[in-house]
Design goal:
The complex is a heterodimer of chains A (333) and B (351).
Chain A (H helix, E strand, L loop, with lengths): L15 E4 L4 E7 L2 E6 L1 E8 L2 E17 L3 E6 L3 E6 L4 E6 L8 E4 L5 E5 L2 E5 L5 E5 L6 E4 L6 E12 L8 E14 L5 E6 L3 E6 L4 E6 L8 E3 L5 E4 L5 E5 L12 E3 L6 E6 L5 E6 L4 E5 L5 E5 L6 E6 L5 E6 L3 E6 L1
Antiparallel strand pairs in A: 1-29, 2-3, 3-4, 4-5, 5-6, 6-7, 7-8, 9-10, 10-11, 11-12, 13-14, 14-15, 15-16, 16-17, 17-18, 19-20, 20-21, 21-22, 23-24, 24-25, 25-26, 27-28, 28-29
Chain B lengths: L9 E8 L5 H10 L6 E6 L10 E5 L3 E3 L8 E3 H10 L8 E5 L6 H10 L1 H6 E11 L3 H7 L1 H9 L2 E5 L6 H14 L4 E4 L18 H6 L2 H4 L23 E4 L2 E4 L4 E8 L5 H15 L3 E8 L6 E8 L2 E9 L8 E8 L3 H9 L4
Parallel strand pairs in B: 1-6, 1-7, 2-3, 2-6, 7-8, 8-9
Antiparallel strand pairs in B: 4-5, 10-11, 12-16, 13-14, 13-16, 14-15
Helix pairs in contact in B: 5-6
Classes of the chains: A mainly beta (333), B alpha/beta (351).
């Protein structure tokens, strides 16, 4: 097991510091440029040549997603905005009651999705829009990796919605409030994070249940490793990696536990190609964890505020991080 | 530039009250006063009167059961989400006001602040303020169970529309309220006119003030506008259903009551915690609220706690003062409370 309490090799002196000037809620890469999503109004393009701030919302930015070509954001101004690498941005949709757009997702084939209240919408690449009324507020949205299918998390379960098919949406029931949704890279599992400190999963298509518990806090960040073998999660004082390398996923198996710390893990970001996870802690520390041998490298020492954003570029050469206090940086490896 | 200091928790005031009691009037009064404060206001979707405020969020009250097999363990799912979103704009407001629908049970709102770690880390419940309609309260206490919950839950109660009833009726209403909740601060208002300092920034979980109140003494207070007196009277507990103290009727509500406990002998924490946890585990559905300041044996610090139904939240607060009397004080407010069981149990926790 890897231990974070002993002094670790550090790459902190190779980090390019970025002053975001406001709380950071997300980070995505457009090409090689890290783009920070600020809590209010702005995207911050932080290329090596200079920084550029763009106002994309008239208030809080509640959700963001990216496919590497554009960044999709939803705001408390009731708008859905797409921004490209040149910083050009356009409003793609406005909620008719100006409700918060607090869930957004991008699909593998250029489709996009968002929700306000109980209504989820998709917009296909061809510009066709379809809507689905969930039984309660949509709390998580995810596109399946293949096929035009969405996972929607809500109270008492999740729904699989096939916007192009006349087939009825499929309901996956599990009591409680489900607050985010994620498909495994092979599309065989849908996992939700719950209000309680636990995850729930369904093996598809038969809907067999799996519960993943033992966390000290609500799981607010999760992601699969590139090979799909592990689901990396926050919510504990260590990095929790659930094994998904067999056909039953983590059922009947123990998670791999790494990078134990006094502070809680609050954000995780899996490397796009290697079995490597970037881990952000509540005390502001950022580490890179190699799953094979548990090796740890420090990217940022503990600091003023919890880490709130982590992201890799598509090639996996640069890691960007941000905190609730607006400290940010990029490390090229 | 952002400061490295951890920001103070944002206080949250919850406004409850039955339909038409005057919640929105009070809300608009709070917002229009020249206090220089900025509020984020969370209103329910059925609010009929316009509200003039920059940061206003419409909430779809969604009460979610927690997946722990306890039916009274509920949270407001919409609040979890809204507060998370609002905190992205911290610095734009000083406090949050949550207006609930007239039919709302305050418990899920209050429990949200204890159950959701993120909400609890960024915000704190300042007070539950209940607006009661002087003319209709008596009827509603009979036919609307929500109203009794709202009264029982309150830290501050406005008896509004006092101009519509006689002084005798007003005293009667006050006595009815006191029978349900002797600990709330009572105000009589017309058109919800009140100094907003009486409603906001109450730090209602400044438990000293609440727990200093001797419930049996209150009925002698003619006006009920000032309960900060330093009396230390002890009245007997042998109340009948209605009796008269100093000319004011004293009611016992048929199903809602409070139990106050105190002891100047130190408590044994190894006995107290198992006892109180077991009590709320078995009687949690009937306990609406509990609060207390505890004096543990060999502990230089005061331990404060509060709870809603089965959820308890507590911590060391500060050292006992040099001249401060080390007194443990607890109150339970609820339906059909097993008073003898509670008293005996508490006695057994004395070290």
């Amino acid at each position: 097991m890897s231990d974070t309490t002993t002094p670790l090799p550090s790459l902190a002196d190779r980090v390019r510091p970025i002053a975001a000037g406001g709380g950071i809620v997300g980070v995505h890469f457009l090409g090689r440029t890290p783009v920070f999503v600020l809590g209010e109004e702005h995207l911050l393009f932080a290329s090596e040549q200079g920084e550029q701030r763009i106002i994309v919302h008239g208030g809080a930015i509640l959700a963001s997603a990216s496919d590497g070509i554009r960044i999709l954001t939803g705001g408390d101004d009731g708008t859905l905005v797409a921004t490209d690498i040149r910083g050009e941005h356009a409003i793609l949709a406005t909620d008719d009651k100006r409700r918060w757009i607090d869930q957004v997702a991008l699909g593998p084939d250029g489709a996009l999705a968002w929700s306000a209240g109980k209504t989820a919408h998709v917009l296909t690449k061809k510009g066709e829009q379809r809507s689905f009324e969930a039984p309660s507020t949509v709390a998580g949205l995810a596109f399946a990796p293949k096929g035009f299918r969405l996972g929607i998390a809500h109270y008492n379960g999740a729904t699989l919605w096939f916007p192009n098919a006349s087939a009825k949406p499929e309901t996956l029931e599990w009591k409680g409030s489900h607050l985010s949704a994620a498909f495994s890279p092979d599309g065989k599992f849908l996992v939700t994070a719950m209000q309680e400190p636990m995850l729930h999963g369904w093996r598809l298509p038969e809907g067999q249940h799996m519960r993943m518990s033992g966390y000290s806090a609500r799981v607010r960040s999760l992601g699969w490793t590139a090979d799909g073998d592990f689901l990396a999660t926050s919510g504990s004082e260590q990095l929790i990696l659930w094994p998904f390398d067999g056909k039953d996923g983590p059922m009947g198996r123990q998670p791999k536990i790494m990078a134990r710390s006094k502070a809680r893990v609050v954000v995780v970001a899996c490397h796009p190609h290697q079995p490597v996870v970037a881990v952000g802690y509540a005390d502001g520390r950022v580490l890179i964890v190699r799953i094979d041998d548990g090796a740890l490298i420090e990217v940022k020492a503990a600091g003023a505020a919890p880490v709130s954003a982590l992201g890799w570029d598509a090639k996996g050469q640069t890691l960007a991080f941000g905190t609730e206090a607006g400290e940010a940086g990029a490390l090229s490896i | 530039m952002p400061t490295p200091d951890a920001p103070a928790k944002i206080p949250v005031t919850v406004l409850t009250g039955y339909l038409g009691a005057g919640k929105t009037t009070l809300l608009n009064r709070i917002l229009s006063e020249p206090h220089g404060k900025k509020f984020a206001v969370i209103v329910n979707e059925f609010g009929e009167i316009g509200i003039d405020n920059e940061l206003i969020v419409n909430a779809d009250e969604e009460v979610f059961e927690m997946n722990n097999g306890c039916i009274c363990c509920t949270v407001r799912g919409d609040l979890v989400r809204i507060i998370d979103g609002l905190m992205r704009r911290k610095g734009k407001f000083d406090a949050i006001i949550v207006e609930t629908t007239g039919l709302a049970d305050p418990a899920p709102v209050a429990q949200t602040f204890f159950m959701d770690e993120q909400v609890g880390a960024k915000t704190k419940l300042d007070a539950v303020v209940t607006v009661a309609d002087a003319k209709w309260l008596k009827e509603r206490l009979k036919d609307a169970p929500e109203v009794k919950n709202q009264i029982a839950f309150a830290d501050v109660i406005l008896i509004n529309k006092t101009d519509l009833v006689s002084p005798a009726e007003l005293n009667e209403i006050e006595a009815r309220i006191r029978a349900i909740n002797p600990y709330a601060r009572l105000h009589r208002t017309e058109r919800a006119k009140i100094d907003i300092a009486e409603v906001l920034g109450r730090n209602a979980f400044d438990l000293d003030r609440i727990l200093d109140i001797e419930p049996a003494f209150l009925e002698a207070d003619e006006h009920g506008h000032d309960h900060d007196h330093g009396h230390d009277h002890h009245h007997g507990d042998g109340h009948n259903d209605v009796h008269v103290h100093h000319g004011l009727k004293h009611y016992h509500d048929e199903d809602m009551q409070s139990v106050a406990l105190r002891s100047d002998k130190p408590l044994n924490p190894d006995k107290f915690f198992p006892w109180v946890q077991d009590l709320v585990a078995t009687d949690g559905p009937s306990i609406l609220r509990c609060k207390g300041i505890l004096n543990f044996k060999d502990d230089p610090e005061r331990f404060v706690f509060q709870g809603v139904h089965m959820i308890l939240d507590g911590d060391h607060q500060r050292a006992w003062g040099k001249d401060e009397q080390r007194l443990s004080r607890l109150v339970f407010i609820g339906r059909n409370l097993p008073e003898e069981k509670i008293r005996t149990g508490f006695e057994s926790c004395i070290a």
